[in-house]
Amino acid sequence: MATPFNAILVLSILISSCLSSAAQTCSSYTFSNSKVFSSCTELPHLGASLYHNYTASTNTLNIAFKAPQTSKGWIAWGLNPNGAKMVGSQVIVAFFHSNGSMVAYPTQLDSYAPSMAPEKLSFPVSDVSTEYINKEMIIFATLGLVGGGSKFNHVWQEGSTVLNDVPEAHSTTGENIQSLGTIDFQ
Ligand SMILES: *[C@@H]1O[C@H](CO)[C@@H](O)[C@H](O)[C@H]1NC(C)=O
Ligand SMILES: *[C@@H]1O[C@H](CO)[C@@H](O)[C@H](O)[C@H]1NC(C)=O
Asked: Would you indicate the residue range of the signal peptide (predicted)?
């Protein structure tokens, strides 16, 4: 009766390794570019995490946003200075361009069918970069939070498709309509 015992042993090893990887926190993650952030938050939906450094004296926010994705999809994260939901949000989106490079840029979600074209935001954005590692897309950026204090409504999102270098609409069910909240960067 060695076989069932071995099967149980293998199963219990599998279960314990799954549990330990699920227990891994955002703070134990090492970015390939060696960037380090003083805070991170595991967001409650879409498996996403937000890393940040906030400098109150200059109202500057350095962020990394990380979420699981296939190479065909897109991710986005941003702030909504004037509302709590998608419309009005000032976001940064990332995906693989058809030329094979990842691209990331700011865009305004001015309606439920935004253009998703590169645009200026209502606050300064600089040092935008992106990478794809271990089936996760990551956005890095520096934001100037002009006079807004440290507490914001934020939104995050992912979609499975990019068509002609434009991110297509995300799912409108489940976690894809729950991925918003408030965050205090202080
Ligand atoms: C965040 O702040 C820490 C501590 O000041 C610093 O070591 C780190 O380089 C900063 N990270 C970024 C991405 O600015
Ligand atoms: C791919 O296109 C993007 C956006 O136009 C551009 O920034 C990037 O340099 C291009 N990469 C290559 C390898 O041509």
From this structure: 1-22
